[in-house]
């Protein structure tokens, strides 16, 4: 089935390195010809990970200790035992958010902007109902206080109520007959033709334009090359229909956010002061269906446009029926046809809504059981491990490039690392060279010469500089015990 035109969206390239660490290390080690050097490289990779893990240990412990006070399950009980004043609790909340946002940044999560949400929601995938948040059920103080003290660019308009982080881009395919969706599109196209014939299109288009001006949906984000990636959608509404493909299976395509994390707090009530902070972690969420991760969703209902179509159809049907009755020789079959068409169209709106509601319930259930990875403490543990994995991969790749290809400026090193990832692993990312250089210099295994180019020490010397780690001593002691 051909599409009428290509539906392309553009998003900023990801900084996350989409390669499993073991695969990365093994692939790079195989490129080292000499056995002793390969052994030194593998030892260096372990020492880098052990050291970076130690750097973050205290920060992660503070993060987890703070969250134990704001865990929605039993955090309120722990707060009561602390005997803290409301002002002290507010300070601890903000400290927790500060740690959380630092971990999010180190793990290459980004706050979704209004532009990105507009791009994501500019099309439909499996969810075809308008989903909105019941903002009265969400607290505005927690995040409002944080962003009043911390400046971020391009924050979305709901930032005081909840925040959505996203990382990674994947792709999802669905193959089905889509009978109801095809019929809905055919009727929609027939409806558009009817509006043109009756000249009502101008009136309705003005109303729709006014509504869209208040809630614009963008299909593109202008980002300077090479920081953007083009993604193509395949949607039913852009397809050309024939009698054959109306009755056959079709495949639709939508890109996904590989990871999404939602942070929010429920609103306090007259009887209970809410202090719990919800942190929910989802995976493989289709961009066009990202509403399923929203907190405190309202139950869907017929859209204003559905009601307009319903009422206008009723008026036109009744007008045609009255005109047929006024004719000298009223044709009973014409009246039956008009009434059947009117009743059928109204039934179509109702049946379509019920079918969309069933799809919505299935998606919500799926998001809870299949797409929600974890929540609360489990999500934070995922994040802490993600930080370590990303930091280690950045250091290993950048050190390997300097070791294999010689001295390089920061820009050259950035390009070389991205080229290696593309050529050896067929993956793309916006390599964070600044963060990698900072860690390499902190480790003491990379320095800058007088011309501004970076160079690394030899493998053996790098291992000597980092030194024997605690983990290695523990492993050695364990081996000695086993052999004794």
Features:
five-stranded antiparallel beta sheet; two-stranded antiparallel sheet; DUF3754; 16 helices; Arc Repressor Mutant, subunit A; membrane; 484 residues; alpha+beta; Aminopeptidase; transmembrane helix
Report on the architecture of this protein.
The protein is α+β, with helices and mostly antiparallel strands and 484 residues long. The chain has a domain at 381-483: Winged helix-like DNA-binding domain superfamily/Winged helix DNA-binding domain (Arc Repressor Mutant, subunit A). It has 16 helices and 9 strands. The protein has helices spanning 21-30, 35-70, 75-82, 86-106, 114-120, 141-149, 179-198, 201-214, 243-246, 304-326, 332-371, 377-405, 410-425, 433-443, 459-466, 470-483, and strands at 7-12, 110-111, 162-176, 228-233, 250-264, 278-286, 372-375, 446-448, 454-456. Helix 1 (21-30) runs parallel beside helix 12 (377-405), helix 2 (35-70) packs parallel to helix 15 (459-466) and helix 12 crosses helix 13 (410-425). Keywords: Membrane, Transmembrane, Transmembrane helix. Pfam families: DUF3754 (PF12576). The chain crosses the membrane at residues 307-326, 332-351.
């Amino acid at each position: 089935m051909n599409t009428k035109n290509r539906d392309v969206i553009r998003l900023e390239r990801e900084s996350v390195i989409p390669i499993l660490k073991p695969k990365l290390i093994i692939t790079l080690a195989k490129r080292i010809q000499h056995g002793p050097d390969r052994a030194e490289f593998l030892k260096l990779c372990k020492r880098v990970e052990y050291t970076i893990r130690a750097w973050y240990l205290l920060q992660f412990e503070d993060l987890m200790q703070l969250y134990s006070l704001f865990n929605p399950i039993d955090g309120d009980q722990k707060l009561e035992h602390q005997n803290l004043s409301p002002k002290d609790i507010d300070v601890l909340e903000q400290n927790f958010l500060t740690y959380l946002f630092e971990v999010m940044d180190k793990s290459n999560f980004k706050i979704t902007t209004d532009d990105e949400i507009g791009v994501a929601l500019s099309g439909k995938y499996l969810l075809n109902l308008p989903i909105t948040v019941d903002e009265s059920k969400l607290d505005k103080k927690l995040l409002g206080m944080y962003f009043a003290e911390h400046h971020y660019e391009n924050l979305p308009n709901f930032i005081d109520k909840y925040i959505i982080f996203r990382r990674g881009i994947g792709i999802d395919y669905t193959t089905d007959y889509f009978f109801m969706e095809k019929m809905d599109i055919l009727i929609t196209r027939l409806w558009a033709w009817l509006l043109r014939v009756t000249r009502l299109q101008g009136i309705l288009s003005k109303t729709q334009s006014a509504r869209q001006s208040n809630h614009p949906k963008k299909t593109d984000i202008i980002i300077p090359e090479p920081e953007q990636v083009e993604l193509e959608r395949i949607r039913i509404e852009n397809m050309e229909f024939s009698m054959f493909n109306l009755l056959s299976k079709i495949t639709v395509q939508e890109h996904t956010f590989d990871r999404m994390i939602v942070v929010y707090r429920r609103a306090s009530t007259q009887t209970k002061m809410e202090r719990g902070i919800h942190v929910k972690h989802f995976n493989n969420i289709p961009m066009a269906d990202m509403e399923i991760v929203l907190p405190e969703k309202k139950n869907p209902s017929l859209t204003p446009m559905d009601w307009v179509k319903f009422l206008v159809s009723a008026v036109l049907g009744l007008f045609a029926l009255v005109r047929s009755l006024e004719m000298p020789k009223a044709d009973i079959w014409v009246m039956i046809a008009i009434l059947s068409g009117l009743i059928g169209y109204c039934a179509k709106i109702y049946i379509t809504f019920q079918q969309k509601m069933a799809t919505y319930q299935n998606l919500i259930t799926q998001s809870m059981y299949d797409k929600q990875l974890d929540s609360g403490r489990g999500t934070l543990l995922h994040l802490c491990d993600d930080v370590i994995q990303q930091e280690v991969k950045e250091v290993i790749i950048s050190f390997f490039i300097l070791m294999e290809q010689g001295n390089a400026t920061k820009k050259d090193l950035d390009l070389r690392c991205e080229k290696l990832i593309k050529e050896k692993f067929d993956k793309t990312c916006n390599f964070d060279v600044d963060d990698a250089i900072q860690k390499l210099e902190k480790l003491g295994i990379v320095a800058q010469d007088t011309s501004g180019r970076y160079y690394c020490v030899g493998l053996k010397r790098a291992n000597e500089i980092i030194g024997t780690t605690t983990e290695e001593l523990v492993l050695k002691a364990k081996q000695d015990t086993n052999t004794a």
